[in-house]
């Protein structure tokens, strides 16, 4: 056990960055056990430790810079994903859900304005799903506009035409 403690003490002394300041003493007893200490004691001899291996750290490489001109942002696009052009919608309540997709990532800087029959429907919103209610039956033309912070139109979708059907009660005469 003392041998293991001594060996650990030597390893610690070799690894420690301050090992040059340490002096290690060693004594072999009559029964063959080896005793190590950092303080001199009777019968102990000073142990010469090899120098610690050190290595200077390498400097960080400088980043490679290129003089390429900054890339222009791609033009924003917007499209109506659902419903598709020519769909027939059967809803007595005149309900329709419109889903819009854009080429820009979801960002709070952009809003979407829905146009129904070329007239703005509600206020511009930060959502891409709109639920419309109480639409009249007949032909409904849907467009979507992608707007910047100040309401500037960045892109407009192509027109999607859907047909709203409602049940009616017509009594025979």
Can you tell me about this structure?
It is built from one helix and twelve strands. The chain is mainly beta and 173 residues long. It folds into two domains: 2-47, no CATH class; 78-165, Immunoglobulins (Immunoglobulin-like, Sandwich), CATH 2.60.40.10. Strands 5, 7, 8, 10, 11 and 12 form a six-stranded mixed sheet that branches. The chain starts with a helix and ends in an 8-residue tail after the last strand. The longest helix has 14 residues, at 2-15. The chain has one helix at 2-15, and strands spanning 24-28, 34-37, 45-47, 78-82, 88-90, 96-102, 111-116, 119-125, 129-132, 138-147, 153-156, 160-165.
Level-2 CATH architecture of the largest domain: Sandwich
N-to-C CA distance: 113 Å
Kindly provide the name of the CATH class of the largest domain: Mainly Beta
Number of domains: 2
Average pLDDT metric: 82
Note the topology:
Blueprint: H1 2-15, E1 24-28, E2 34-37, E3 45-47, E4 78-82, E5 88-90, E6 96-102, E7 111-116, E8 119-125, E9 129-132, E10 138-147, E11 153-156, E12 160-165
Concise account of the structure shown:
This protein is mainly beta. It has 1 helix and 12 strands, in the order αββββββββββββ.
Any key phrases for this structure?
173 residues, mainly beta, Immunoglobulin-like, 2 domains, 6-stranded mixed β-sheet, 3-stranded antiparallel β-sheet, 37% strand
